[in-house]
Amino acid sequence: MASRRVIFCAALGLSLGSAGAARADIPQTVDGAGIKVGQRSTLHPGFALIFGADSNVFWTNPADRGGVRPAAYTMPTAWIGVGNRKVRDEVLQSPAETSNRKVDYNLRVAAGYRAYLARDEIIRKQSRFNFTLDGHFIFAPGRRFSVAFDESFARLAEPRNYAAGPEFNHNRLDHRGALTFTLRPGGGNLSLSLGYLSELLYYEAPDIFNADRVVNGVATEVKWRFRPKSAIVARYDFRYTYYFCCTEIGTGRNEDSLAHRVLAGYRGSVSRRLILEALFGYGQADYLYDTQTPANFKGFIGTTTVSYYPTLRTNIFARFERSYNDSLFGNYFTDVGGRLGGAHTFPWRMFAALQMAVIGRRYEGLPVPGEDIDTVDGYENVYGDFAGSVARKDTVFALEARLEQPLGKLWVVALRYDLSVVNSKFRVNFTNGIEDYAGFVKHVVMAIGAVRF
């Protein structure tokens, strides 16, 4: 009975996430001037020692068994990057104009070991190794026919819950890749692209077998550049999500799905200092083996992002979106909300960044007690808008603040603060009498000393 609860709680915690990012990250500092490699490439190695304090190691609610557990930690990290183009928002900044370049690329590897400094042995044994690799390549950039390859691979670890013990951690492998072919007929203002999408999520703990999944899909985009920095864009992507586990009832199984997204709109410069992306469309996801109503997603999706550059050292952005994603807890969740932030570099080279997000999140297609999962007695404060269905509503808030000051050419000192809040009245009641509350508050403060090039 206890092991089944662990499985269900793993899906609950992982589906929450933060409003800022899909995956945990390895803290790094802004690159320095770098080391020239060849005619166009620059090498950026770095090493940092981080001391931090985490107010809620296990992402728990005060009412949960075990309560909220704070701890200090240290995290030595190292990274190395090389490339001839920068990456921004996971996109390689490769100009669309034709040139004699054969390859535009950026490759980065980072690793870190988080070691908790606590009297509690269970917390200390949550210390784990993390690794990330991000690669972006465009072959024959700007030519009539070009090929792009993007890969993000990570081995990440996060504590699960106090009762699970240190041997059951959220150690996981996370792969996301794309191979894209682009054709630019005529003068190059029109571009047509077609790509293959691949994702893999795999948990090392044997009891989280219901969360392992693979995604295969295609993505296509038509872009007409009617001005040098402005374009009309239409794109479509399809994803088939397949879960390795569970065809029988009572296992808390996740449903395979076929997901479609169609978006169209404008992307480019409105003025010299203002950039706008506005894409709107329709999404549909069919969950193949779920008999609930409504088990599927159908509806409007879209995103609008405005970026303003008042000076060369300052960037301010605002984003609003409605989106949906496959969920490890239930079928899918929809997000409606916005992000606001900015960054500035002072004349004395100090870098400051602040961003926040407020998102309303709703989960649909939760496992039905006694049908999809046999270790759950029921849910509390559930919004049931349709007969035979259950849903869950959360408000997610995230805040991230960064401050970095270079000392000479190589050294950097930095402070970082992350806040994650899930405001939720949702509670899971298990058949063994345990109650699991969804809401939590988590503060993380880090002091970073680094040497980087």
SSE blueprint and pairings:
Layout: H1 2-16, E1 35-37, E2 41-54, E3 71-83, E4 87-88, E5 91-92, E6 103-117, H2 121-124, E7 128-139, E8 145-156, E9 172-183, E10 190-203, E11 213-227, E12 230-243, E13 257-269, E14 274-287, E15 297-308, E16 314-326, E17 332-345, E18 351-364, E19 376-380, E20 391-407, E21 411-423, E22 427-430, E23 435-437, E24 440-452
Query: End-to-end span in angstroms?
Result: 53 Å
Count of extended strands? 24
Q: Over the alpha carbons, how many angstroms does the gyration radius reach?
A: 23 Å
Series of H and E elements = HEEEEEEHEEEEEEEEEEEEEEEEEE
Can you give the helix content as a percent range? Answer: under 10%
| Count of alpha/pi helices | 2
Structural class: mainly beta
Provide an overview of this structure.
It contains two helices and 24 strands. The chain is 4% helix and 58% strand. It has 453 residues and is mainly β. It has an 18-stranded antiparallel β-barrel. Strands 19-22-23 form a three-stranded antiparallel beta sheet, with no helix packed on it. It has helices spanning 2-16, 121-124; strands spanning 35-37, 41-54, 71-83, 87-88, 91-92, 103-117, 128-139, 145-156, 172-183, 190-203, 213-227, 230-243, 257-269, 274-287, 297-308, 314-326, 332-345, 351-364, 376-380, 391-407, 411-423, 427-430, 435-437, 440-452. A hairpin with a 4-residue loop joins strand 22 and strand 23.
